[in-house]
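Quick illustration, no need to memorize.
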Amino acid sequence: MTAAPKDLGSILDRFRELAGGSPLAAAVRGELPRDRGAVLEFEKGRRGRLVERLEEAKQARGRAVERFDAEVVRLEKQIKELDELVRRVEEGGRGEGGGPGPRPAATGRGLADIEGVGPTYRERLERAGFADAAAVGAADPERLAAALGIPVSRATTIVENAVELLKG
């Protein structure tokens, strides 16, 4: 026969041995020799910690959903703006006889007019085949990022700036 444990930690360890891991399960089965109150307090504390972790997880999920929803709204807005830009370019971008109309640079809508596009980016854009703000505004940010050698987030901002310039 083993000596009786004297401190709460030892008591709980002994309870876990008897119950196969759960002091509460051992108490329910009547296998605990004494101090069921300590076991119940322990289990209530464990339950409280689990409830706290559950609430934290719910809050984290809520924050993630909010970020996701904000990104969906941002993307939907960007798609709508690009659809409008494409419509305007298709309707107004043709000269007489169906050929190309006047260059946007002549109306103040060149590459250098886009906020965030300086001489270096302008040169890179021209080398990649972007002739004006309309081309940049209609561009895929990933393609623009590759052309400029910049992060997609920065390219997205430049595309958005070009769209704003064209809305003028």
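The chain has seven helices and no strands.
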